[in-house]
Every structure is written in C-alpha cells, then in structure tokens.
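USER:
Make up one protein:

ASSISTANT:
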Amino acid sequence: MGLYLNVRNPKNKVEQIIEQFGAEVIPAPDSFEVPHDKRLLCVVENPMFDAALVVMDHKEWRRIENPQDIGDDRPRTFLLIDRVKCDKATGVIK
C-alpha cells in the first residue's frame, strides 16, 4: 500500500509540503539514491487529490520510476524532505 504524507488540503500538496516541512523540489531522480538524513517523496496529481508517497526503498522506487511503462501519465513532482520531520508526520516515529 505504501506510506503517504498527509497535509491539510487534498490539492497543491507540493506547495504545502514545501511550506510546512521545508522540502525541496528536485528533478526526477535516475535512481533511488537518497541522503541518509532525507526521505524521497513522489507527489502524484490526481483529479480530486494529490498523493504524496514516501518512497522508502528500492522496491517502491521501481514501482514509480517509469510510470509511462504502465500508461500512467499523471503529473509527478519529486521532493526531498528531512527524514525526522517526515517520519514524525507519517507516524513512523513518535
């Protein structure tokens, strides 16, 4: 199922995550190489809501790295976010 980062409003999550957590937008990465103190987010725009997936491992990375292969053309934005802030916000750590 995956781990998702939720914020107040269901749309415009990229802007909310930047404002609330200080995340930074990055180009679509070529591989799952994430600094130890960061988490990789993939925000997928859907008609009714945006989904902010926390990419936790290589398995999840493979699932999202080439969405065109499965005919998925929804816009995606990648962000790096502080690991501790993300883990607290998602309940990974209390």
